[in-house]
Design goal:
The chain contains 20 helices and four strands. It has 455 residues and is mainly alpha-helical. It has three domains: 12-102, Fumarase/aspartase (N-terminal domain) (Fumarase C, Chain B, domain 1); 107-201 and 221-355, Up-down Bundle (Fumarase C, Chain A, domain 2), CATH 1.20.200; 364-422, Fumarase/aspartase (C-terminal domain) (Ribonucleotide Reductase Protein R1, domain 1). Helix 4 crosses helix 5 (81-93), helix 11 runs antiparallel to helix 12 (284-307) and helix 15 (364-373) crosses helix 16.
């Protein structure tokens, strides 16, 4: 490609080191789509003849069909996908293929291709996330009336509907969808026409190409157009936050499916056994999701580090944007495709959750509220209930069966109705503030997320 300036071939190892065809070949469809739009613009502006452009478009369509059918294989000796397609086009249609690169550079071409590719893949990932959210909503609906202990500091804290716990993850994932949409919105401007860095002397129509490719506009500075990779960082950042949410969910699933909790049981299809311990049923899919989160964090760090010291405009370092971004994208897809059916087939062990909720004095806050509603300052009620809990632990009681006579030693405000007030079912049912843990609130949350996704 640059034979006119150089008098000897690139060293073979240097050539291999420089090549990106092994990972950027996945952008073949976007490269062809972008080239077609560019060619149409060149004809519209009278820069190329319609005859040449018709040959170019026919040739590109043939290359696309042959790649997708498997008839045409990528040449591992090609420097990148852009030169592979241009070389193949020239081989098929002659000099017209050499004219395609008029009024553009590989710098704006690659910036275009990766935006197109990531835009397409981002929507695919949004679909996978939304599918997971709907599965969580279905599982939460199944668990609306299941009473479970909620935790702070991994200590039993208050009783909730288990559906409420599940819907917390649905809300996290909805934010992930919003972050990806935001990233795509900022990504969705066309850099094509920026050329190497300074624009072009040809009378091009950048807006025509942008509209043809579904962009909302064009980049406003040609140097920024070819050197900007914020969109890779921003999208990978959204993926990292998504993976953090999946990792937190995985951690809970790992705990819940252990014998120490036994709140859920994972389907055999999403667990593995041990090579020497026949009794084991390991939550390996959840553990792998938790582990792969670090991988996506690493991809984000790689992008930030690669970009932090680059002068404007394009530098070869920026070739490193693709492997990191593609790896994060592929990892997210892989995790979502396994995680969603794992949740869908997860069995809820309601009896074990209820037994756990009966222990740990998780209705203590409701007992303090009982006194506060009768006029006692909450801090005074808090102290009295703390003393009662200490006595129950010492004497082997729980709050539900501690004698009324003992309660009255602490306050005459205690009456027989306290037992109904601190029953787990009552504790959960009465937490009906907006976004609270009551079954009514959980059903409203389920309706909200379904409506948000389905419109």
């Amino acid at each position: 490609m640059w034979a006119g300036r150089f008098q000897k071939a690139l060293d073979k190892k240097a050539d291999d080191f420089n090549s990106s065809i092994r990972f950027d070949c996945r952008m073949y469809a976007q490269d062809i789509k972008g080239s077609m739009a560019h060619a149409e613009m060149l004809a519209k502006q009278g820069i190329l003849s319609q005859t040449d452009v018709d040959a170019i478009i026919d040739g590109l369509e043939g290359i696309l069909q042959d790649i997708e059918s498997g008839k045409l294989q990528f040449d591992p000796n090609a420097e990148d996908i852009h030169m592979f397609i241009e070389g193949e086009l020239t081989k098929r249609i002659g000099d017209a293929g050499k004219r395609l690169h008029t009024a553009r550079s590989r710098n704006d071409q690659v910036a275009l291709d990766i935006r197109l590719y990531l835009r397409d893949k981002a929507e695919e990932i949004v679909g996978l996330i939304e599918n997971l959210i709907l599965v969580i909503a279905d599982k939460a609906e199944e668990a609306v009336d299941v009473i479970a202990p909620a935790y702070t500091h991994l200590q039993r804290a208050q009783p909730i509907s288990f559906g409420h716990q599940l819907m917390a993850y649905a809300m996290m994932l909805l934010r992930d969808v919003g972050r990806i949409h935001d990233a795509v919105k900022r990504m969705n401007v066309s850099p094509l026409g920026s050329c190497a860095l300074a624009g072009t002397t040809y009378n091009t129509d950048r807006a025509f190409v942008a509209k043809k490719l579904g962009f909302s506009g064009v980049t406003k500075n040609s140097i920024d157009g070819v050197s900007d990779r914020d969109f890779c960082v921003e999208l990978t950042s959204a993926f990292a936050i998504l993976m953090m949410h999946l990792s937190r969910f995985s951690e809970e699933i790992i705990l819940w499916s252990s014998w120490e909790f036994k709140f859920v049981e994972l389907d055999d299809a999403y667990t593995t056994g041990s090579s020497i311990m026949p009794q084991k049923k390991n939550s390996d899919m959840a553990e792998l999701v938790r582990g792969k989160t670090g991988r996506v964090y690493g991809d984000l760090t790689a992008l930030l580090t690669m970009l932090k010291g680059l002068p404007l405009a394009y530098n070869k370092d920026m070739q490193e944007d693709k492997e990191a971004t593609f790896d994060a994208l592929d990892t997210v897809v892989m995790c979502l495709e396994v995680f969603t059916p794992m949740i869908a087939t997860m069995k809820i062990c309601a009896g074990n959750m209820y037994k756990a909720a009966q222990k740990g004095f998780i209705n203590a806050t409701d007992l303090a509220d009982y006194l506060a509603k009768k006029g006692m300052p909450f801090r005074a009620a808090y102290k009295i209930v703390g003393q009662i809990v200490a006595e129950c632990i010492e004497k082997g009681y729980v709050l539900d069966d501690y004698p009324l006579s003992e309660y009255k030693k602490h306050s005459e405000l205690f009456e027989e109705d306290l037992y109904k007030e601190i029953a787990l079912e009552t504790c959960v049912e009465k937490r009906n503030s907006e976004g609270g843990a009551s079954p009514k609130s959980v059903r409203e949350q389920i309706l909200y997320v379904r409506g948000t996704i389905r419109g």
